[in-house]
Structures are given as C-alpha cells and as structure tokens.
What does this fold into?
Amino acid sequence: MNEVSVGEPHPLVELTIDGNSVKVPEGSTILSACRKEGIDTPTLCWASNLTPANVCRVCVVEVEGSRVLVPSCSRSVESGMVVSTDSERVRTSRRMVYELLASSVEMDRADASVRDWMEYYGVRPERMGRRDEIATVAQSPKVQDDLYVRDYERCILCYKCVQACGDDAQHTYAIATAGRGFSAHVSTESDVALPDSACVYCGNCIGVCPTGALVFRTEFDMRVDGTWDEDSQEVTTTVCAFCGVGCNLELHVQGDAIVKVTSPADHSVANGHLCIKGRFGWQHASG
It folds into this structure.
C-alpha cells in the first residue's frame, strides 16, 4: 500500500471575529479566517495566487488593542485576538480608500466585486475633487501590440501585475514601479515600448489586474466598437492542449467566437497563471 504524506498538523488558534469564537490553523491570516467563517471582506491588491502587497488598505479590520487598523490580508491571527470587520471606523476607512482611488482613476471597468463594494459603502468620489484635473486620467491607452493594451488611466498601483511578472509567477521582471509619490507608475525598464522590453507576453498581469488597466486587445477593440457584451458571454472550462502540463483554461465566448481566455486561480497545476500559448493562442479556434 502506498503511503500518502499529509504534512504536519497545524495547531489551532482561537480568536473572536465580530463577536463569534473562531478556531483556525496557526499561521492563518485574518482574511482567511474571515472567509472560513463566511465573512465577506473587500480586497483589491490581494489575490489568492500572489504574495500580499499591503498597499490598497480596503481589507483593513479593527483589532482590539491595536492603535491603527490592520490589513487582514497579511496580518496573522493570534490567540485571543478580538477582530471587528464592520465597525464604523472600518467602514469609514474603506469608503475613503475607494473614494480616493475613484477620484483619481477610472473605476468603471473594475471587477464586479469592486463595484459592488463601492455601492455598498456609498462611495462618492466627487467629494475628493474633479477627476478630470488629475494627470492619471489624461493619458491615452498604450496600444503597442496585438495581444493586450495598457490603459493606465485605470491603474491603482496595486502592484499585482509586477508580482505576477516577477517572483510570484513568471520571473521575467519586465515591469516595475517607476517614479515616486504622485509620479509613481508601472513601467518597463527605461520606459521602452513593451515589445522592446523583456516581456514574454504570458498575460499573467492581465489575469490579476482588478480594474481593467490591463485588457486583451480583443476586449479593447470591441469596447471601442461598442460590441463588447460581457453579460452575453459564456465561460467554458477546458484543458490547454498546447503541451502536457494540464493548465485549465476558461474560454470566454461571445456569439460564436472566443474573446478572451482566463484561468482559475485555485487550479492546482498553474494557479491561474498561463504562458503566451495558453492565454493568447486561441485565434485558430475562431477561424
């Protein structure tokens, strides 16, 4: 009989979340503890297949005894910890973060969950001033190839694309953060055009972008033409046939044509990350 290794068991840590006693494995984050208990918590810079970046601060919670709100995506649970996820202080902080972001960038194409949370918290970005006076939204999309478009008027500097390009997935390091303060932006080395950079066009940056700053060229062109209709699209999961690794593909089909390909982040083979063939090599299927 073959033996199956299950790893060493983790001791449980008991804490209180919103008045309820919770037991989770030692080393868990507050966010994972909340989700285990069915407590929905907003995130922007966090992804299950990336290392927490701690930059967006929409997942903050209140911990008894802590002077400041803490990011639930990276803060580990502690025995006896008392956490509040929906206090007035938490709601005010989350609403303000969303308002600051939406006052400086376009959020109209953000993930549906992002828009739902903004509505839930009653976000009013106009309180922060006129968005058309911000340099971020004054730039044109970068259309430099036939695969994807960088629309930085929607970039919130969550760094997820940089992580996916670097240590967490591709190890290409084609992009990084350049500039400081209000001039900070995601850029290639020496700000060269993307085709001249180290980019291998895996598209993993698109797969993790939460705001539509990075999109498939097909989606960009269809939006310009007014033919993009996400509500009518069907998603079919299949296995990539380009090699024997076994990556899962989610084919987004509108009408009789594939319009983009994603991959489930919880799939055990590639954790949502793909190569150029898996993410972009589907044009032959549409004839």
About this structure: The two ends are 50 Å apart (CA to CA). The first strand starts at residue 12 and ends at 17. The chain has three domains: 12-86, 91-131, 139-286. Helices lie at 30-36, 88-104, 112-120, 160-165, 204-208, 217-225, 276-280.
